[in-house]
């Protein structure tokens, strides 16, 4: 079995599948044990309770740690992992079990032994990392968890689970030890020079801040003040890795539920870290660009090779070239001085003596090839031998007749080639040169960072110049138009050159990103070649712009040919190519504009324009203008991409910052009202009169900024999409520059009504992002310019749509209402947060907005719902803006109805009537018993409201159960108050009596005869009923006779049933 390993997981699964604690399970586990002993392979499986399988796993773990052939590092990591998991379980068990003291002692010893690895100088990095992770787990277990019982996790072991009276678990001691370990971790963060160890600490802190919110402040403070000072001397990449880990952890904390209170501290730390990392990156780039240290200086007479080594190299070179080896030359450290008797080199005949003549060194033509191919001659001269061997030049046995005199010889002309052959020759040459450059690039061991110095750069330059500079047009180009033959020659010349350039262009565009350096070299060479050629030949046809357009258009074709037409988002080759151009024609910016509006190619366009702005100061204004104009594009995707591109330069990055601000404000002014266009004036003195009619902040139409994507004048009524084109950039910038809010509020007051309505809707996202605690917004609401009150009201409404207004906001609005004559709608969002005196004070002002339209009526109904208590049996059935908890501060339904009657003059009769009608529509709040209380309370007032009888009529019409109360109590009280002395109330009394007749007859008989006669005169239909009521009622005959005298005999008149009048009394004076 040992020679054939089994799959541990499958075998373990098989053991779990058979009956537990059976002989079959024991056999399978024994087989797995044998296989693991022969082929160690850790496996993981959760176990619970005491069983045969659990004991087998523990025994196997003991074998792996103590007796197996695993490496020490693997054993240590395995033990740490086991104890790390066991510590949590054991700690929880010990909290509830008070008898397992021995296991706690063993666990404490294991913990102490593992923690020793952290500070051990001999432990490996892997072991230390595992030990640090264990220590972080110990810190979590030995610190207190979340105190809120609603958020506690039952599976989270912590020191809070330890009872105070536990016999062997010292809670305070363990908690102090946990904090001490945390301090040790923080010390390691500041002092350790091991990037792997620091990364392990930072990664484990994400769980620490999640499970221990009380330690978030300590972690944030430690990370905020951390600097890589201890990592000095380490590679820049290692330092950068730790910096990134710190940054990721800070961002993770800021986005968590406990990071909101540390937002400012974290943002400041991240800003400092960004500056620190950029500075380190700049220093690293400067270090890489710095030339290598100066090599040790050698003496001027030092030779790179000794003479024997040089002779050996020469002989080897001759043999590799198939040349005859040179004669052996003796080599001595100090050669003897030359003497006349020295024997010359043996040869078949004596050589003639060469006469020494003086030679002007300035006129010498020293050929490098001669120096290279004649090492023997050079070594002989250096050794002091005046005789030079000539065997390699003219063989000694060559007959004299075979010597050739080349004085009068001429070379044959080159073979004439056809155009096809010429192109094939050039293609072959270019291909061989490029292939050779690729081989050189592979074989070269040292590459230079400076362009033009590597072999590849040299071969690229050679290819480009073969295309751009080799060919010359013979003759005078200016005479080509006079001679037809010369014209054809010129056309043929340019055609051949274009074919060569097209070949190079096709080769480049086949793999543009990898051949970026070649195309950049080509374009720079074309630009320079045009300059030098046009200096000599004014009629030279420029090639730079022609072939630049060709490259650009071909690149567009390549993009369209890609799958789905989309370029690689990480490919910045085209942007880098445009950035390295010596001159950028205007039509290239137009091309980038077209690419930016294409959804599939916008990445290329925006990347190129951004690089132009950053790295080409000469084109910065033009490129930035294109980006700014794209911020007004009608397509939301293109517009937002442009806004995201330019907003990164605001604030603080000049000159882009100022240009972007000016553009955004000028686009905003386009939404303001413009002076009416008038006919042109004849007299110049009157021309300026039109400007005097313009309001502050308005610009003449001819001074307004225009972009290709905006209409000359916005159409009215304005559409939100058109308005958004004007303000989306400004809204995006306002998040970073709150001062722009002043400009928005100032311009708002000078806009058309439909434009204002669109602004109110579009500004919602901006206001929500700023929040109700934004100081600039609160200041603007307090000091909003004239005409912008409706925008301030919209801001207030946004703040209170999905939340209760803060006390600061309530106080601000109350101050505004007191200081300025603002619309009562400002009170609606905050009225529910006021106390009862303020509600009674400001509620009539809110009710006064009723004008017969449905929208104000809905607003007033929502206010009533929020400030009036609802009877318990129907509580919650009325929608309200966050029901208040302070029920004592709310109004009762009766108090509201009484308030509407008492404040009828302040509100206005028509608005008060409409408000009372809103109350009657809330039948679940204003029930019959509530109305009875209201009528009883009002009738006791010394001065009755004008609308009181109208309300009584409406009450008895809505609830017929109130007729008895009105007829027996209310009418009698009104008679005692001599209601007829008030004409308006008397008219209402008569109408009410008619509505509730015959129930009102008893009360009517209490009227004086004169008022009773007036009543029946105004309402003749009541005579018959009253006469019948008096006749049937037995009583004083004289009194009855008196009533009958008032009612008279009206036999001919048929009784008219009382008709219920309209709810709204037309007779009530306005």
TrEMBL record:
The record's Gene Ontology biological-process terms are: mRNA processing
Name of the protein in question: Symplekin tight junction protein C terminal-domain-containing protein
The record, for Gene3D superfamilies, names:
Leucine-rich Repeat Variant (1.25.10.10)
Record carries keyword Nucleus: yes
Comp. bias intervals (Pro residues): 325-349
Q: Which cell locations does it reside in?
A: Nucleus
Q: Report any Pfam family annotated for this entry.
A: SYMPK_PTA1_N
The ranges of region (Disordered) come to 277-305, 320-361, 676-698
Task: Could you list this entry's UniProt keywords, alphabetically sorted.
Answer: mRNA processing, Nucleus
User: Is-annotated flag, keyword Nucleus?
Assistant: yes
Q: Provide the primary localization.
A: nucleus
| Basic and acidic residues bias (residue ranges) | 277-286
GO annotation, cellular component aspect:
mRNA cleavage and polyadenylation specificity factor complex
Symplekin/Pta1 N-terminal domain: residues covered: 95-288
Q: Where is the Symplekin C-terminal domain?
A: 823-1018
| Annotated SUPFAM superfamilies | ARM repeat
**Entry superkingdom:** Eukaryota
């Amino acid at each position: 079995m040992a020679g054939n390993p089994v799959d541990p997981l499958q075998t373990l699964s098989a053991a779990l599948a058979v009956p537990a604690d059976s002989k079959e399970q024991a056999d399978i586990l024994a087989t797995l044990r044998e296989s693991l002993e022969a082929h160690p392979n850790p496996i993981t499986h959760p176990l619970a309770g005491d069983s045969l399988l659990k004991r087998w796993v523990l025994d196997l773990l003991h074998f792996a740690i103590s007796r197996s052939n695993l490496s020490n590092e693997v054993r240590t990591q395995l033990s740490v992992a086991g104890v790390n998991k066991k510590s949590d379980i054991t700690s929880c068990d010990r909290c509830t079990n008070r008898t397992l003291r021995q296991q706690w002692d063993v666990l404490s010893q294991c913990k102490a032994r593992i923690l020793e690895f952290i500070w051990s100088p001999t432990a490996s990095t892997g072991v230390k990392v595992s030990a640090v992770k264990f220590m972080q787990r110990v810190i979590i277990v030995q610190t207190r968890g979340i105190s809120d019982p609603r958020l506690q996790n039952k599976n989270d072991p912590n020191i809070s689970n330890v009872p105070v009276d536990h016999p062997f678990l010292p809670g305070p001691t363990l908690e102090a030890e946990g904090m001490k370990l945390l301090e040790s971790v923080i010390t390691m963060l500041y002092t350790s020079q091991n990037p792997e160890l620091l990364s392990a600490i930072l990664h484990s802190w994400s769980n620490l801040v999640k499970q221990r919110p009380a330690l978030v402040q300590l972690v944030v403070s430690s990370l905020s003040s951390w600097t890589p000072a201890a990592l000095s001397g380490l590679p820049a990449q290692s330092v950068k890795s730790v910096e990134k880990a710190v940054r990721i952890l800070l961002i993770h904390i800021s986005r968590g539920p406990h990071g909101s209170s540390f937002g400012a501290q974290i943002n400041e730390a991240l800003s400092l870290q960004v500056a620190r990392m950029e500075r380190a990156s700049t220093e690293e780039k400067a270090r890489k660009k710095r030339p290598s240290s100066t090599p040790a200086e050698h003496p001027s007479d030092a030779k790179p090779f000794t003479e024997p080594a040089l002779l050996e190299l020469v002989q080897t070179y001759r043999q590799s070239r198939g040349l005859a080896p040179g004669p052996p030359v003796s080599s001595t450290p100090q050669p003897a001085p030359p003497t006349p008797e020295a024997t010359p080199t043996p040869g078949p005949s004596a050589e003639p003596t060469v006469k020494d003549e003086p030679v002007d060194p300035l006129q010498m033509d020293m050929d490098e090839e001669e120096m290279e191919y004649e090492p023997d001659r050079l070594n002989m001269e250096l050794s002091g031998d005046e005789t030079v061997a000539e065997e390699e030049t003219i063989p000694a046995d060559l007959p004299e007749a075979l010597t050739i005199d080349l004085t009068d010889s001429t070379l044959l002309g080159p073979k004439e080639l056809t155009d096809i052959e010429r192109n094939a020759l050039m293609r072959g040459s270019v291909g061989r040169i490029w292939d050779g450059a690729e081989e050189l690039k592979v074989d070269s061991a040292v590459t230079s960072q400076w362009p033009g110095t590597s072999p590849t750069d040299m071969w690229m330059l050679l290819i480009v110049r073969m295309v751009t500079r080799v060919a010359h047009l013979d003759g005078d180009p200016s005479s080509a138009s006079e001679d037809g033959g010369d014209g054809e020659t010129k056309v043929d010349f340019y055609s051949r050159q274009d074919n060569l350039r097209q070949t190079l262009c096709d080769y480049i565009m086949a793999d543009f990103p990898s051949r970026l350096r070649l195309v950049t070299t080509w374009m720079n060479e074309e630009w320079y070649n045009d300059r030098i050629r046009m200096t000599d030949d004014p009629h030279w046809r420029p090639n730079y712009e022609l072939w630049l357009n060709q490259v650009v258009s071909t690149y567009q074709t390549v993009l369209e040919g890609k799958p789905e037409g989309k370029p690689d988002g990480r490919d910045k080759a085209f942007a880098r190519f445009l950035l390295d151009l010596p001159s950028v024609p205007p039509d290239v910016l137009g091309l980038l504009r077209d690419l930016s509006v294409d959804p599939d190619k916008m990445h290329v366009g925006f990347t190129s324009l951004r690089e132009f702005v950053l790295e080409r100061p000469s084109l910065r204004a033009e490129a930035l203008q294109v980006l700014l104009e794209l911020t007004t594009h009608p397509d939301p995707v293109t517009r937002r991409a442009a806004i995201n591109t330019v907003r990164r330069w605001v604030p603080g990055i000049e000159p882009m910052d100022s240009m972007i601000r000016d553009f955004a404000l000028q686009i905003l002014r386009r939404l303001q009202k413009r002076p009416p266009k008038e006919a042109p004036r004849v007299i110049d003195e009157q021309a300026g009169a039109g400007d005097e009619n313009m309001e502050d902040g308005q610009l003449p139409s001819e001074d307004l900024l225009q972009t290709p994507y905006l209409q000359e004048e916005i159409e009215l009524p304005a559409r939100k999409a058109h308005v958004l084109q004007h303000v989306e950039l400004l809204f995006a910038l306002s998040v970073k520059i709150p001062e722009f809010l002043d400009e928005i509020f100032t311009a708002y007051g000078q806009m058309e009504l439909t434009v204002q309505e669109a602004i109110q809707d579009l500004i919602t996202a901006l206001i929500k992002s700023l929040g109700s605690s934004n100081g600039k917004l609160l200041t603007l609401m307090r000091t909003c310019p004239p005409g912008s009150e409706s925008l301030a009201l919209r801001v207030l409404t946004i703040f209170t749509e999905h939340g209760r207004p803060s006390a600061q906001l309530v106080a601000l609005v109350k101050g505004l209402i007191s200081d300025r004559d603002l619309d009562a709608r400002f009170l609606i969002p905050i009225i529910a947060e006021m106390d009862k005196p303020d509600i009674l004070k400001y509620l009539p002002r809110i009710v006064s907005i009723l004008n017969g339209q449905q929208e104000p009526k809905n607003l007033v109904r929502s206010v009533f719902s929020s400030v009036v208590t609802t009877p318990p049996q129907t509580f919650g059935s009325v929608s309200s803006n966050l029901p208040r908890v302070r029920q004592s501060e709310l109004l009762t339904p009766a108090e509201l109805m009484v308030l509407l009657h008492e404040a009828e003059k302040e509100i206005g009769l028509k608005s008060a009537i409409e408000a009372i009608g809103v109350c009657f529509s809330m039948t679940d709040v204003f029930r019959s018993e509530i109305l009875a209380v209201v009528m009883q309370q009002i009738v006791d007032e010394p001065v009755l409201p004008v609308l009181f009888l109208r309300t009584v009529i409406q009450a008895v019409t809505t609830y017929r159960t109130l007729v008895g109360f009105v007829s027996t109590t209310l009418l009698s009280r009104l008679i005692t108050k001599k209601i007829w002395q008030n004409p308006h109330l008397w008219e209402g009394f008569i109408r009410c009596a008619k509505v509730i007749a015959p129930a009102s007859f008893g009360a009517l008989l209490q009227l004086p005869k004169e008022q009773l006669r007036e009543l029946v005169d105004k309402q003749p239909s009541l005579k018959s009923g009253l006469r019948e009521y008096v006749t049937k009622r037995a009583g004083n005959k004289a009194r009855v006779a008196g009533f009958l005298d008032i009612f008279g005999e009206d036999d001919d008149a048929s009784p008219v049933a009382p008709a219920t009048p309209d709810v709204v009394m037309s007779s009530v004076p306005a």
